[in-house]
Amino acid sequence: MTERSIGAYDVSQRGESYDADMELMHPNRSKMVQVALEVLPFPKTAALRAIDLGIGTGYFTERFLNYFPKSEVLGIDGAQAMIELAKARLRSLASRVRFVTGDLRSLQRLTGGVGKADVVFSAYALHHLNRIDKEGVLKQVVELLALGGWFVNADLIVADSPEVESRLQQLRVAGIMERAGGSDSRFVDSASTQRFLNDLQANEGDQPLTLAEDLDVLCRSGLKNVSAFWLEYRELVSGGQK
Fold first, then answer.
1. Tell me: the pLDDT tens digits for 17-58?
2. How many beta carbons lie within 10 A of that of residue 139, not counting itself?
3. Residue 53 shares a structural domain with residue 169
4. CA angle 106–91–79, rounded 5-degree value
5. How confident is the model at residue 1 (pLDDT cuts 50, 70, 90)?
């Protein structure tokens, strides 16, 4: 995460509304995490060591720990405010989670001494990085993974052409307005909704890649069996194996 995106999330107001906003703006989050979990070729009884890149409020980590009940997670986030929310969410699972606050671009330093990971996963975090930084983070991920380990990512992408991206944004706005049902002043009409989204993306430093770029970055990082496991409009579940 960049300094801009860390700053955008390291405020109590953003964290407190994060999960509710995710339900409005990214209703596929639950499906995407489920796909990411199902792709992992490990028995549910496996005692996996995992790292969550951008743990946020702990949503993905909670799902991972419940799916693999003998596993442990190291959760990393640049925003301490989000770490505190994750700690609250994961209180009943606290013995199986450790937290580190820091910039994902310094992943090797942040994970020093933890040993090899079987799984590294992330959701809605890496699109805050530009392509060069994302590739740098993923090369560090490959170094951290045990042989045969997996990286899975549920995140945003951008369309190849402005015309397609414009249409996808229209669908995105319409979906948010429908789910908000007129009860949220931010999303009362298409103009205010798009303005809110534009401001949010600028404030958080969003830099999503295209589908082809995303998969190419995974390949260049040293992962094999790179695939797009699920795709709908601007949202993608991708990953690969060491």
1. 788 899 999 999 999 999 999 999 999 999 999 999 999 999
2. 16
3. no
4. 30
5. low
